[in-house]
Amino acid sequence: MFEINLAEKYVPHSAQLPFHLDGYKIRYRGVFGGTGSGKTLAGVAEDVRWLIENPGIVGYVFEPTYLMVKHILIPTLEKILGSLTSSPLIKSFHQGDMHITLWNGSQLWLGSLLNPELAEGANIDFVHVDEARLIRNFDTAWHVIERRLRGSGGGHPNGAWSQQRLTLQDHIYIAYLRTQKQN
Ligand SMILES: Nc1ncnc2c1ncn2[C@@H]1O[C@H](COP(=O)(O)OP(=O)(O)O)[C@@H](O)[C@H]1O
Ligand SMILES: [Mg+2]
Known about the structure:
The chain is an alpha/beta fold. The protein has one domain: Rossmann fold (3-Layer(aba) Sandwich). The chain has six helices and seven strands. The chain has helices spanning about 5-10, 15-20, 40-55, 65-80, 140-150, 170-180; strands spanning about 30, 60-65, 90-95, 100, 105-110, 125-130, 160-165. Strand 3 and strand 4 (about 100) form a beta hairpin. The structure holds adenosine-5'-diphosphate and magnesium ion (MG). Magnesium ion binds near residues 39, 40 and 130.
């Protein structure tokens, strides 16, 4: 059995901490901040926390495009987990379908929301959407996500948002407020 001490890899700063403290309490959470403020890393650290604390759980992280999966998401995941192809924490990483299985049976899918219909599939336990503002057809994408968030049977359904600047008129912010009523 391998162990990972998340605290050795990531210590949340004061603006990231409230997001993590609401884990298991709030169904839909968001991280909002400027470029470089730590949204992606906070979201990925939270994903890894769920994968570790709930063996057998199934999660999905979405970026707006596959290029961002490669250039942003995978390097950020590797900051915490180590190399996806050689870390002892990872049982398998299938690059073709962007699917990771951890040593404890938890699974993480990495995907793009360029064509939200393609994100349809089996039920999952948690979703993390990075750079939500850049996602075209966001409403369609969000419907697909909500349909899939029924739980794999392994853990709590949970949604997480990662988003840059917002205004009250912003459609992402309006969609976010809608989820807050469901918390
Ligand atoms: N709590 C933290 N401790 C150490 N480094 C951090 C922390 N949060 C973010 N960083 C680092 O800051 C940089 C920007 O973080 P990132 O999550 O990519 O920002 P954003 O997604 O908001 O643009 C990255 O190099 C990341 O590793
Ligand atoms: Mg980011």
